[in-house]
Design the sequence.
């Protein structure tokens, strides 16, 4: 079935199909529509779940942790300052290996106050132990809600998943979205079964023990190894999803027209679609340009990224965030990866889109032109900035 819906609606449809037991919700623009739709579904009976309207974002994740600790499937959503308010809970959830799924509507953080979309919020929390995936459109948003539960609940993974949508550009934009049948989703995503890993009255466990310097290191190394090894599970789940529903997202990353490319832009989220159009137009004009869509930032796909960039002369990383005093966070991660290549490509960081500023086709073409020029340019370039400070 196809519906003309916005990204928030697509998230709600995907969550409904995943059959969570509890939704813990606190509204914050621009994710509010998603939890409102889920409330409607609980009210009309199309989703048989308990809906908890809690008093804060911190409480929303704390409630989801309690739900998950007893083996139930939990969902919550947030954005911007709300995600930062949850920050204390994020490492608790990942350290306790709770397979929670959360939607984050990427939005600028204060100050100055701004409700529009950039990726500053989630980039703050890359070190929290959560899997982080960034989606391009509403269809991918819906599909990733379903995939996320299968990934999180895999015994080889047991990690919470944050599905990131660009605020307003995706959350509020309407598109034609294919909604799978409940029967097909049930066949792909079985009921949650964590009997040997959850708390019960007959089999009590502690999920927040104290571990000093004699054991704490080993706990964290185990968590790191499992998150790193989850890359194979992400690929498996995407392939299984493709077999079941006919839509494939190429796992950790997707390449576009890179076979003979000399200059490549690396993107995340909704700017990927605009960049793809520019690649097509520049290809028609005879320029050897390509696109790499980075879907997962945690776990970071180092091996797949380096393999995809073999033979590329120059890369640009588009960051809708900035780590003040240095550069964009994605650029830092990409450079840390390509340094291990035999012949690393030249790299430039293009920072743009902060506070919802448009990144236009002209801006993207200009970035490609800078990559192809061969000129010695500053490591960091600002896209569509009105003045230099």
Sequence:
């Amino acid at each position: 079935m196809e519906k003309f819906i916005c990204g928030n609606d697509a998230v709600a449809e995907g969550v409904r199909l995943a059959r969570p037991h509890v939704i813990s919700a606190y509204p914050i623009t621009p994710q509010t529509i998603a939890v409102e739709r889920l409330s409607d579904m609980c009210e009309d009976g199309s989703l048989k779940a308990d809906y908890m309207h809690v008093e804060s974002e911190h409480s929303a994740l704390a409630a989801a942790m309690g739900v998950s600790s007893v083996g139930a499937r939990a969902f919550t959503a947030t954005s911007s300052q709300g995600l930062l308010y949850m920050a204390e809970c994020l490492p608790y959830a990942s350290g306790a290996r709770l397979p929670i799924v959360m939607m984050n509507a990427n939005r600028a953080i204060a100050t100055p106050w701004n409700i529009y979309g950039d990726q500053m919020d989630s980039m703050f929390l890359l070190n929290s132990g959560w899997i982080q995936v960034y989606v391009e459109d509403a269809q991918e948003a819906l599909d990733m809600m379903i995939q996320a539960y299968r990934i999180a609940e895999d015994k080889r993974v047991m990690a919470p998943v944050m599905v990131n949508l660009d605020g307003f550009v995706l959350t509020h934009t309407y598109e034609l979205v294919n909604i799978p049948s409940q029967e097909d989703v049930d066949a792909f995503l079985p009921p949650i079964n964590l009997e040997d890993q959850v708390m019960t009255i007959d089999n009590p466990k502690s999920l927040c023990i104290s571990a000093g310097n004699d054991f704490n290191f080993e706990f964290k190394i185990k968590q790191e190894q499992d998150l790193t090894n989850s890359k194979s599970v992400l690929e498996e789940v995407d392939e299984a999803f493709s077999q079941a529903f006919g839509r494939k997202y190429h796992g950790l990353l997707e390449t576009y027209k890179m076979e003979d490319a000399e200059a490549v832009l690396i993107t995340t989220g909704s700017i990927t679609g605009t960049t793809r159009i520019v690649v097509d137009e520049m290809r028609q004009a005879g320029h050897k340009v390509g696109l790499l869509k980075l879907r997962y930032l945690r776990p970071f796909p180092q091996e797949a990224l380096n393999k995809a960039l073999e033979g590329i002369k120059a890369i640009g990383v588009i960051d809708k965030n900035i780590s003040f005093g240095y550069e964009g966070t994605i650029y830092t991660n990409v450079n840390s990866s390509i340094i291990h290549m035999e012949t690393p490509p030249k790299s430039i960081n293009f920072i743009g889109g902060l506070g919802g500023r448009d990144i236009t086709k002209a801006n993207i073409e200009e970035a490609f032109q800078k990559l192809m020029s061969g000129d010695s340019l500053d490591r960091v370039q600002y896209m569509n900035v009105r003045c230099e400070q």
